[in-house]
Every structure is written in C-alpha cells, then in structure tokens.
Design a protein that fits this description.
Length: 381
C-alpha cells in the first residue's frame, strides 16, 4: 500500500526526479504499473483520498482510512492506494494535493474535511472527467458530490447514556469549530441528555481546531474543574477521554471506538462507518449511474442510522442494562422513520419555542443550524 505524507511530498518529488533521470524513458514496466492492474490484466480504477490528520489518529481520519481499506477489500478492480494525510485546509496546499492525485491517474477523489470544499470545487473545474466527492460541505457541481452522515442521530443516543450517568448534572463538551456540523451535534447530544435528565446542562468549550491533542485535553480539564463528571467531544483525538479517566470521571468519545485509549472512562462513542458508502459510490460512478445533484438540502448523500453510516461503539461495563435498552428503543424509533431527533417541541437557549410541537426540521434547516437548544451553556462565536 502506498502511503503519502504531505510533509514528505517535496522530498518524494526530488527522489522521483532523480530516479527518472537514472532510468530514462524506456525499460521495464514499473512495479506501480503492475500493481495498478487486476488479475485479468485490466487497468484498475484509481481512487484517491485527502486526509486532514494522520491515519492513526484514532478519530476522524482513522474512520475514513478504515473505509478506504474496506473499499479496496470489497472491490478488487479498485486501486485506492493513493492517499495523502496531514493536508492543511488552506487553499494553496489543498489544491496542490488534490491536483497531484489527479495527475497520478486517480479518476475518483474523496476530500474528507470541511475546509477542502472550495479547493475541491476549484480543481474540479479543471478536470471535468474526474469525479470528486467532498465530505461535510455544501457545494456541488456536475462532477462534484457532497456527502455526510446524520451523526446527530448517534449523538442523541450517546446523550441518553451521558444523561443517565451524570451525578453533578454538568456535562462538558469539547467542541472544534462553531459551524453547523458541530452545533448540530451538540444540540442532538443535549436533546438526548435532557430527555432522561431535564436538570442536566451541557457546557461547551471551543478549541477552534479539529485535531490538537494538547488543546483538547486542556479544554476537558477546564470543564472537569468546572464540575463536569462526563466529558463529550467533537475532536479528532482521545485527549478529552484521557483527561476524564485521569480524574476518575466518565466520557463519550467520537469518530471511532475510543475505549482502548481510556477504558475506564469511555462509555461509548458515536462512530462513522464510511466503507459501505465508499463502495456504493464507486460502483455507481463506474456504472455511470452516479448523480451529484443535491437530494438532502445541499448534500448529494446524507445517510444515518438506517443506512449504517453512523452508529455507536460497544458500551463500556459501566453502562447499565436499563440504559442499553433505552438506547436500543430510541434507535429503532429513528431507524423506523417514525420520529427523528429534531422534532418539536424544541426550545432554544432563551427558553423560546424554536420548533413547534410535531414539526420536524427540514434537511436544509439542519444543515444551516446556528443556534443552541435549551440546556446548552455556551455561545456560538
């Protein structure tokens, strides 16, 4: 498997140039070319990935990396060995890496962080024969789809667990950026907490970073010092869970199962399962049936618990059977389609009705969410 780290791109380019000069234009077909063919000798379909963090972050990027590996396992005609990790979200770096993947022959490219949206659109204009899929953004084009998962559903379920567990009625939430994706998750989580514990509050601290283990851990410590006895997070490292474990408190992880990093703290984690989506999407593109037209607000794809793209990691031993049964009951309500998390009545922080009784928020309203529900302590700034 070919692994490319953004920080090593310049050094790698130099080595390749030297190798080309040494071997000339003729000679044997390279090992890379041999690997790009399937058992029938046909050229494989090359699929590239752009990652915000390292593949071993135990978080967001690790979940996408598991999906990439699943894609290669399930579709033998796919070569998905081109991926670049630790790519900054600034336009110049992101566009350069995405362009590099195109020039390497990748016909499908997944860009897996919100900040890659505009760079993806810009590169896509230059390569109309390549299909691009951007995760969590809201811009599409004829050859650009936007995909995400209804993580707020899994967040809600994890909120039930947290609400049942807290004794201080203060739950800390270490959040990344104040954008709709994160706000929606905080709100979904809080609705779950308050369903089982109306007296509980969810305190939010912003780090303004997706992955900074030290900053995330420091934010969790501040919340613990403020009385929180459960720590939740929208961070790409297990730092907040480790901070909770260090002082004998509990936590809710995120992205992937974080129990290995903090087994005495992590009760469960809302997790991503990108593999089936990647397989279905690549199949559709290969068969000519893929359509990038937005179908869920501004998104081409927005699967949830029913589709299996989001879910909960296994429960820790500290979670009671009663709580597990309640979570399963609520999960089945959502999967069955009879109810969804953001169905009224729901109040905002001021105690005013934001969603009337029986009314359900539209997909676009959810994707543009910029307010907190009752029970959240924090500001959007």
């Amino acid at each position: 498997m070919k692994k490319i780290n953004f920080k090593a791109v310049l050094a790698l380019t130099t080595v390749l140039l030297v190798a080309l000069l040494a071997t000339g234009c003729g000679g044997q077909e390279s090992k890379q070319s041999e690997q790009s063919k399937d058992q029938q000798g046909e050229e494989k379909l090359k699929v590239g990935f752009v990652y915000i963090g390292p593949v071993d972050d135990a978080g967001w990027t690790a979940a996408h990396e598991q999906g990439r590996q699943y894609l290669e396992e399930q579709l033998p005609y796919v070569d998905a060995s081109d991926y670049v990790e630790n790519v900054p979200e600034n336009p110049s770096d992101a566009e350069r890496v995405i362009t590099q993947l195109v020039e390497q022959g990748n016909k499908i490219i997944f860009t897996t962080s919100f900040g890659y949206m505009d760079p993806t659109i810009n590169v896509a204009k230059k390569y109309p024969d390549v299909t691009f899929l951007h995760c969590s953004g809201y811009r599409t084009a004829e050859n650009v789809g936007a995909y995400f998962g209804r993580m707020y559903q899994a967040r809600y379920l994890s909120g039930l667990v947290a609400g049942k567990a807290t004794k201080s009625n203060i739950i800390g939430y270490v959040a990344a950026f104040p954008i709709p994706e994160v706000i929606r998750g905080i709100n979904g989580f809080t609705l779950g907490v308050r369903k089982v514990n109306p007296d509980a509050k969810v305190k939010v601290v912003w780090t303004n970073t997706w992955i900074d283990a030290a900053a995330a851990k420091d934010a969790a410590v501040a919340l613990l010092d403020a009385g929180a006895d459960v720590i939740a997070q929208h961070q790409d490292s297990p730092g907040p869970q480790q901070a909770a474990e260090a002082v004998g408190k509990l936590g809710i992880g995120y992205n992937s199962d974080m129990s290995k990093m903090a087994p005495k703290a992590v009760m469960t984690s809302p997790v991503w399962n990108w593999g089936p989506y990647y397989v279905d999407t690549v199949k559709a593109i290969k068969e000519g049936t893929f359509d990038s037209t937005p179908k869920y607000g501004s998104l081409t794809y927005w699967g949830g618990l029913a589709e299996g793209v989001v879910g909960l990691a296994p429960f820790g031993p500290m979670v009671s059977e009663d709580t597990k049964q309640l979570v399963e009951q609520e999960k089945q309500r959502i999967i069955g389609g009879e109810w969804d998390v953001f169905t009224g009545p729901i109040k905002d922080q001021k105690g005013e009705i934001k969603i009337p009784d029986g009314q359900k928020m539209s997909d676009q309203e959810l994707l543009e969410m910029n307010w907190f529900v009752e029970g959240v302590e924090g500001t959007i700034k």
